[in-house]
Specification:
Number of strands of chain B: 0
Radius of gyration of chain A: 23 Å
Membrane topology (chain A): Multi-pass membrane protein
Number of strands of chain A: 2
Helix content of chain A: over 70%
Order of helices and strands of chain A: HHEEHHHHHHHHHHH
CATH superfamily of the largest domain in chain B: MetI-like
Distance between the termini of chain B: 41 Å
Radius of gyration of chain B: 23 Å
Largest sheet of chain B: none
Main location (chain A): membrane
Strand content of chain B: under 5%
CATH architecture of the largest domain in chain B: Orthogonal Bundle
Function (chain A): Part of the binding-protein-dependent transport system for phosphate; probably responsible for the translocation of the substrate across the membrane.
Number of domains of chain B: 2
Number of domains of chain A: 2
CATH topology of the largest domain in chain B: MetI-like fold
Family (chain A): Belongs to the binding-protein-dependent transport system permease family. CysTW subfamily.
Structural class of chain B: mainly alpha
CATH class of the largest domain in chain A: Mainly Alpha
Order of helices and strands of chain B: HHHHHHHHHH
Oligomer: heterodimer
Strand content of chain A: under 5%
GO biological process, one term (chain A): phosphate ion transport
Shape of chain B: globular
Helix content of chain B: over 70%
Strand order of the largest sheet of chain A: 1-2
Structural class of chain A: mainly alpha
Largest interface: A-B, 85 and 87 residues
CATH architecture of the largest domain in chain A: Orthogonal Bundle
Shape of chain A: globular
Distance between the termini of chain A: 44 Å
CATH class of the largest domain in chain B: Mainly Alpha
CATH topology of the largest domain in chain A: MetI-like fold
Number of helices of chain B: 10
Largest sheet of chain A: 2 strands, antiparallel
Chain lengths: 282, 274
């Protein structure tokens, strides 16, 4: 009787553990079976590299959206990574204890603020600022890049801080012993030791930026064309899906699912490089 | 000792970065609060939503329902699977590797992809329509890896001597898990669950095409509902009710701050227990 219950629960736990496998399989199956046929019907090359997206005329080229996603993400990295990296160094090695007790929960709060709030904030603060300072319509790649740079800060700070803390203190002490200052020891002895962890944080940040949807949609303009400058609007892969999913049907709907497939493949590549980097760090 | 130029520059840079980061957060929270609090009024908390009063109370109730249902699904599965990974699986088990990789994959998938999957699978294939149930299942998959990871960490932090002591007294594996290991891991698990609540409360993209946007109280588990974040998005995007959007943002922000505070409070109690 007791043995039977032990075995039963063992199997129950095992089944629970398999749920996440089932979830990934289901997501892959339904996403790919929904999107790949459309991709084939449109033509894979025409779909990925076509520059015109006009569902009304049966033209489905997502190249502008791929470019849009890349631009916005690159901009976010440009703003977010240096700031996040330096802030993480501060948190790990410069921060007074009392201040840390305030900063740490604040960074956690930043990670927890919903993307609609970030988006709304950007809509009423960043967009007008960009418009008044640089001209243009305000809803632009620049605005989205600034916002995303802000939004990926907590991710980068958390992962980088953990990576810096994982480096043996002897690296830092060695630096000091050779006569380097505190700052030089941290930057030139400790940081190189945390290299793969820092890279992993950046990769995770890229994943966040490329996958962000609602906040970007509110401020990026959403015009499906290849942008000429960073003050112009563009459309990203994620916003392409949200913009039109509400009313799309037939091939149009399948083309949107195919857009999600492309996004999913990007994310898978990013995830794999993240775990590879993390493993190398160990 | 006077430091060289580079050292002073580096010190300046890290302080500047920390100050900029904090000012951005303070600017965001302060801006929303200052502009939003004056617009909080009683009509925003009316039980009946109309397009005139754009009341957020039904959306708040929907959010609570959505959170409860998705936790009811995700928490038992997440906790049980973490128990398997930590307490049952042998080292080097292939299955554990696969579960870890899939959980990592799940936590990296953007919410819009979850939304699309939910719209295909729960809404269309299973025929649940735009409903509370479809939304809750979608959210459950989304928060599953978070609950799994935090529970795993909480279980791992329980010292092995607890388990050995329990086994030594003749308790079986099950009794050891439920009477000895789980009780000491509760704060860690709880703080993970609270973080998951925050995730559900803040989600928009995954819910628009699974739970829909009807801003009224649900009649059943199969009615379409709008959570507070989706409500906030709709108001901000329509641009007709900007003042109300500010007020809604305040409520949403305060809820998120409370949830975060609660989570770190619970986690701190875990730290003290050690």
């Amino acid at each position: 009787m007791k043995k039977a219950r032990e075995t039963f629960m063992h199997i129950l736990f095992l089944i629970a553990a398999c749920t996440s496998i089932l979830a990934v399989v289901l997501i892959c199956v339904f996403l790919f079976s929904g999107g790949v046929p459309a991709m084939l019907e449109i033509g894979v090359f025409k779909f990925l590299f076509g520059t015109i997206w006009k569902p009304g005329n049966n033209l489905y080229g997502i190249f502008p959206m791929i470019i849009g996603s890349l631009y916005v993400t690159a901009g976010a990295i440009l703003f977010g990574v240096p700031l996040g990296l330096l802030a993480a160094v501060f948190m790990a090695r410069f921060c007074p204890k009392t201040l840390y007790r305030i900063l740490k929960p604040a960074i956690e709060l930043m990670a927890g603020i919903p993307s609609v709030i970030y988006g709304f904030f950007a809509l009423v603060v960043i967009v007008p600022w960009v418009k008044n300072t640089f001209g243009g319509r305000g809803q632009s790649i620049l605005a989205a890049a600034l916002l995303l740079g802000f939004m990926i800060l907590p991710t980068i700070i958390e992962v980088t801080e953990a990576a810096i803390r994982a480096v043996p203190n002897s690296y830092y002490e060695g630096g000091l012993a050779l006569g380097a200052s505190h700052e030089r020891s941290v930057f030139f002895a400790l940081l190189p030791g945390a290299r793969s962890g820092i890279l992993a944080g950046i990769v995770l940040g890229i994943g966040r930026a490329i996958g962000e949807t609602m906040a970007v949609m509110m401020i990026v303009g959403n015009q499906p064309r290849i942008p000429g400058s960073i003050l112009e609007g563009c459309r990203t892969l994620t916003t392409n899906i949200v913009m039109e999913m509400g009313y799309a049907a037939d091939l149009h709907k399948e083309a949107l699912i195919a857009t999600a497939v492309v996004l999913f493949v990007f994310i898978l590549i990013i995830n794999l490089s993240f775990s590879a980097l993390k493993r190398r760090g160990k | 000792m006077r430091k060289d130029f580079l050292s002073r520059l580096l010190r300046f840079l890290v302080w500047a970065a920390a100050i900029i980061t904090m000012s951005l957060l303070i600017l965001l929270v302060g801006y929303i609060l200052i502009n939003g609090i004056p617009h909080l009024k009683a009509s925003l908390f009316d039980l009946n939503y109309t397009s005139d009063n754009v009341s957020m109370l039904p959306s708040i109730i929907n959010t609570v329902l959505m959170t409860i249902i998705s936790l009811l699904i995700a928490a038992p599965i997440g906790i049980c699977s973490a128990i398997y990974l930590v307490e049952y699986a042998k080292r080097g088990n292939k299955l554990v590797e696969v579960v870890r990789i899939t959980a990592e994959t799940l936590s990296g998938i953007p919410s819009i992809v979850y939304g699309l999957f939910g719209a295909i699978f729960f809404v269309t294939v299973l025929g649940w329509g735009l409903s509370l149930l479809s939304g809750a299942f979608t959210m459950a998959i989304m928060i599953l890896p978070l609950i799994m990871r935090t529970t795993e960490e909480a279980l791992k932090s329980v010292p092995d001597s607890y388990r050995e002591g329990s086994f030594g007294l003749g308790a079986g594996r099950l009794r050891t898990i439920f009477r000895v290991v789980l009780p000491s891991a509760v704060p860690g698990i709880l703080s993970g669950v609270i973080l998951a609540i925050g995730r559900v409360v803040g989600e928009t993209a995954a819910l628009m095409f699974t739970a829909g946007t009807v801003a009224k109280l649900p009649k059943s588990i199969l009615s379409s509902t709008r959570t507070l974040s989706v409500h906030m998005y709709t108001l901000a995007n329509e641009g007709l009710h900007v003042d109300e959007a500010y007020a809604t943002a305040v409520v949403l922000l305060v809820i998120v701050i409370l949830i975060n505070g609660l989570s770190s409070l619970v986690a701190k109690r875990l730290g003290k227990g050690e």
